[in-house]
Specification:
heterodimer; A: mainly beta; 7-stranded mixed sheet; B: mainly beta; 5-stranded mixed sheet; 4-stranded antiparallel sheet; globular
Chain lengths: 116, 111
Amino acid sequence: GAVVSQHPSWVICKSGTSVKIECRSLDFQATTMFWYRQFPKQSLMLMATSNEGSKATYEQGVEKDKFLINHASLTLSTLTVTSAHPEDSSFYICSARDTLLYNEQFFGPGTRLTVL
Amino acid sequence: DAKTTQPNSMESNEEEPVHLPCNHSTISGTDYIHWYRQLPSQGPEYVIHGLTSNVNNRMASLAIAEDRKSSTLILHRATLRDAAVYYCILRDGNSGYALNFGKGTSLLVTP
């Protein structure tokens, strides 16, 4: 099946720094990628939809200036958490839509962000 | 988005079949029914999806009620590796591909 990778798998940073998370579709092209956030013992919350070559669409309540999303190629989307604070500590998960199997999304393994 | 209702948790014995129910009484005609599962500290994994007809794949079967107001994910022989949170999600085929996750059902499989 289609594989989506994320890097890094975990990161610890100091408050006020920025962190970039990469999401790659390894064996398929993805015109659309999605970013989710998951707090402990909670469900996934959609943060934004990223379309290749255009601006991301953010869900209500998600600050676009804080969570910068770039989808510059058909296999790579990045999420940058700017000026991270402890409340941004969470599990960040991306998914990619396979343009051939357009009803299926494939998820990455997630990135655990801890802000001290 | 149309909402789904799932039991918070279910328990099954290993090698027994498991029927995971999902109610979606407000489903619209263009809503696809998707099932994903998530193991601890991992991203969700696609299980199966359907629109109107029952579906089978190597992982599971999806039984959709005739009025589409409910569906059941069937794991034919549960294994310990099937212990996960199972999410039933409706996706409008006309309005994009984002998935809105509910709370899901936590499946415990006991040996």
